[in-house]
Amino acid sequence: MHETPEDLARLQRTLDESYALAGEHLRSIFTPERRMSAEQVVRALRGVFVLHLATVTADCAPVLAPIDGLFYRGRLWFGVPPGAVRIRHLRARPQVSACYSVGEALCVLAHGTAREVAEDSSDYSEYRAYGRESYGPEVWDYWDRHYDDRKERGYTAWIEPRRLYAMTSPDARA
C-alpha cells in the first residue's frame, strides 16, 4: 500500500461527500451495506486494472473506451500513449468520467477532472516507479523504449474527483 494517512483521509472524505450528494436512485444501489471505505478501495484496486474512461469531443459528444488504470496514493491514474486522439480531448476538455467494475461484486465510479502530470515532476517519477512495480520491469521498460522514439509525448494523469462512489457485494467485503 502506497497511501499515506492523509491520502486515506482525503479519499474517505471524497467518498462520504459524494454519497451525501448522491441522488435517490444511486443511493438505492450504493447502499450503506455495500459502500466501501477508503481502506477497502485501496485493497481492491491493487495493480493494473481496466478503467473505462469517458472523455468529451469538441462537439460535446462523450467517448468511452477502456484504458489501463492504476490506483496510487488514493487516486485513479491512467496514461494515454502518444498518437492517441484522446490526448486532444483531454487537453482541451479535461472533464472525465471513469468506471471500474467486476460484475456486481465491485464498482468504483468517478466523475471529475483529469490532472495531467508533467514528466519532470516528482509525482510523475513516483508514479512511474509504481507503474514499473505493477506492470513488471520487462513490460514497463519495453514501453519506455517504444514510446521514446516518438516526438509526441503521451499523457499521464490522475482524476481529481468531483464525485467518487465505491461499492462491493456484502459477501465480498474485506
The tally of domains stands at 1
Number of helices: 6
Kindly report the average pLDDT value: 90
Report the count of strand segments. Answer: 6
The 3D shape can be described as globular
How helical, in percent, are the residues?
25-40%
Work out the radius of gyration: 16 Å
N to C succession of SSEs: HHHEEEHEEHHE
The CATH architecture can be named as: Roll
Euclidean distance between termini CA atoms = 15 Å
CATH superfamily: Electron Transport, Fmn-binding Protein, Chain A
Largest sheet: 6 strands, antiparallel, barrel
CATH fold-level topology = Pnp Oxidase, Chain A
Describe this structure in words.
The chain has helices at residues 5-21, 24-29, 38-44, 85-92, 122-135, 137-148; strands spanning 48-56, 62-72, 75-80, 95-102, 106-116, 155-168. By secondary structure, it is α+β, with helices and mostly antiparallel strands. It has a single domain, classed as Electron Transport, Fmn-binding Protein, Chain A (Pnp Oxidase, Chain A, Roll). Strands 1-2-3-6-5-4 form a 6-stranded antiparallel beta barrel, surrounded by 4 helices. Helix 5 packs across helix 6. The longest helix is centred in the N-terminal third of the chain and has 17 residues, at 5-21. The model has no long low-confidence stretch (mean pLDDT 90).
